[in-house]
Amino acid sequence: MFIVKGNIVFTKESCELTIFENGYIGVEEGLVSFVSKRLPKEHESSSVIDYGEKIIIPGFCDLHAHAPQFENIGLGMNMKLLPWLDTLTFPTEAKYKDADYAKKMYSRVVKDLYRFGTTRATLFASVHVEAAQILVDLMEEAGLGGCVGKVNMDMNCPDYLCEDTETSLKETREFVKRNQNNSLVDPILTPRFVPSCSERMMAGLGEIAREFDAPIQSHINENLDEIKWVGELYPKSKNYADVYDGFGLLNGNTLMAHCIHMKEEETELFVERGVYAVHCPQSNCNISSGKMPLKNLLRKGMKAGLGSDISGGHAVSIPKTMVLAMQISKLRFQENPEEGFLTLSEAMYLATKGGGSFFGKVGSFEKGYEFDALVIDDSSLAVRDDLTLEERLGRFIYTGDDRNIVERYVRGRKLEKPPFE
Length: 421
Fold this sequence. Notes:
Layout: E1 2-13, E2 16-28, E3 31-36, E4 48-58, E5 60-66, H1 81-94, H2 99-115, E6 118-124, H3 129-142, E7 145-149, E8 151-152, H4 165-179, E9 185-187, E10 190-191, H5 199-212, E11 216-220, H6 224-233, H7 240-246, E12 254-258, H8 264-273, E13 276-279, H9 281-286, H10 294-299, E14 303-306, H11 318-335, H12 344-356, E15 373-376, H13 389-399, E16 405-410, E17 413-414
Parallel strand pairs: 1-4, 5-6, 6-7, 7-9, 8-10, 11-12, 12-13, 13-14
Antiparallel strand pairs: 1-2, 2-3, 4-15, 15-16, 16-17
């Protein structure tokens, strides 16, 4: 057991920040045992790690990112989704057939997740199962938590990435079995999106999901051309969401990225199934997909989190994602005042407890939650000394960067910089 002291800020609920100025967090076997304004009497003789005036917040959760696309960050930003995939993304992902190349590049991905305070991440790998395993192993070695998925694609993609259906399903099942008892990083089923997966592939992934109670991640309603394409492929389905649902791929263990152009019946289905909508504002802007109606979806009871969506997104940083999510929400507010707009506490909730709930009791400092935490030294941002802790947090989110993060914890373990080249 150990105890940390500092200015503690977290979100029990999305509507407000919970703040303990100069407070204490007790951690036992990786879990929060108490959070308090004063040191409990029974622990008065215990040693305390005192972080002084620094801010202690939960670690950030990234629910959608494409690890092989890391090297493309900032490229192809003048394209829409489908040309962007064909011209830039697919040729890059083909490189991950080479295991040495995968290890080199995935090491950089993991180091940047650590650097920017992302303590839990759900990652797409490529179709190459050996490379996906390398990514799992690197995440585990670095002490970061989350999920990694071997991508499935057996149609409407380049020949050099197109998989044999049964081979892909066999490799996926073996990947899930191999990693289902990992310490920190779970396998996740990853059909890229409906247009790239045959009916047999989707049905087979549904079977694996039921067999192993495995989580699922994919994309939905990102781009109008994509939605039209899905309608042509599945003319008998009610909508895009209905296709996934027909194969048993929508449940409380499912992440669906983007959700920009949702029909009312799709929203209702997501709420009924407990599906998480993952808001990826950087990518939505960069490849001209649209402005997700996040506040409307939250109001209707949809679970949600944030995704950097590299490399459609241009930054690994979840604070940058939070800021853009708030800004886009305010633009929508000007057009639709009845929506309201995303506040700092709501953005913080999505980046921590909201997204963290996908991994279990993660993203808060409530008793029984896994102690994932960042220690923030915002002294370099100070130009005045009369700010509240809420104002200091907001200033860090808007103007701080990785240099302000001085310590990182995952499940009670203080992390060192990943030992990769």
